[in-house]
Design brief:
Blueprint lengths: L1 H9 L2 E2 H13 L9 H13 L3 E3 L11 E4 L1 H18 L7 H10 L1
Helix pairs in contact: 2-3
Length: 107
């Protein structure tokens, strides 16, 4: 969910940019341990296989600097995850990932 959220907020995003953002979250002690580049890269390939993200052909290079964005299916999937998260936790931060991170960080 977090990788999808990062892609949504920074779209189009490269694997390296996603990894950097996750490391920053670890540095700020919002994440306990940020995933390594290989893990992020593998996750991106799986999300691409499920058609939740797609290659942004206008912003990407041919083989390097590949940049991804959410598909319509990915947006709906992420919105559904937000709804489930909000129902379970009682938070009302559907469109504001910063609000979710702040509430999680306070606990």
């Amino acid at each position: 969910m977090l990788i999808l959220e990062v892609i949504r907020e920074t779209s189009p995003a490269s694997t390296r940019e996603i990894e950097d953002i996750l490391r920053l979250l670890q540095y700020k002690e919002i994440l306990k341990k940020a995933p390594r580049y290989k893990t992020v890269n593998d996750s991106i390939h799986k999300l691409d296989n499920y058609n939740l993200i797609e290659l942004d052909k206008n912003e990407s290079g041919t083989r390097k600097n590949l940049r991804y964005r959410l598909t319509d299916k990915g947006i709906k999937f992420l919105e559904t995850l937000h709804e489930i998260f909000n129902e379970i936790s009682g938070y009302k931060c559907i469109d504001n990932p910063q609000c979710i991170l702040n509430k999680i960080h306070k606990e």
